[in-house]
Amino acid sequence: MKRPDFDSFRTIFLECLGQSTNLEPLNSAAARWDGLGDLEMRGQILESVNAKLQDSCGLSFEVNHRLLKVEGPVESVIIQAYHELNTIYLVEKINNKIRGRLN
After folding, report:
1. Which pLDDT tens digits describe the chain residue by residue (103 residues)?
2. Which residues does 82 contact at the CB level (< 8 Å), separation at least 6?
3. Contact 50, 44 (CB under 8 A)
4. Domain of life here (predicted)?
5. Secondary element (H or E) of residue 93
6. How many CA atoms are closer than 13 Å to the CA of 14, on its beta-carbon side?
7. CA 14 to CA 20: how far, in whole Å?
8. Which residues of 2-17 are buried (b: 16+ CB within 10 A; e: fewer)?
9. Structure confidence at residue 99 (pLDDT)
10. Angle 74-102/6-20 helices, nearest 10 degrees?
11. CB–CB of 28/18 below 8 Å?
12. Could you tell me if 59 and 88 are in contact, meaning their C-beta atoms sit under 8 angstroms apart?
């Protein structure tokens, strides 16, 4: 389990976004997230980000309605999703330490 830094996470997110839309990845961070298709399409984008993260880092975040319905720029979703990923990473790290003490 290796946590990506923010820039790596952002790059992964924007690449997945670019594959699902006609937006150029470098310019898409300012696009409105809630203007990118419907909830299903945004969910598919987040799931593709999760799949890449799982392959490269062994981590993923929860795709939830709060992320799907963010009213604002894509950059805001990137920041919120990265925060969730970090929270999950820290909880897993703490759990692994506790499990190590129990054995």
Report:
1. 688 999 999 999 999 999 988 888 778 888 999 999 899 999 999 999 999 999 998 888 989 999 999 999 999 999 999 999 999 999 988 988 888 877 6
2. 6, 9, 10
3. no
4. Bacteria
5. helix 74-102
6. 19
7. 10
8. ebbeeeebbebbbebb
9. 84
10. 130
11. yes
12. yes
Tokens 């993923």 label which residue? Answer: 60
Q: Which string of DSSP letters, residue by residue, matches 35-90?
A: GSS-HHHHHHHHHHHHHHHHHHHS------HHHHT--SBHHHHHHHHHHHHHHHHH
| Angstrom distance (rounded) from CA 7 to CA 5 | 6
- 101's tokens: 């003490």
Tokens of 10: 């952002």
**What pLDDT, on a 0 to 100 scale, did the predictor assign at position 97?**
87
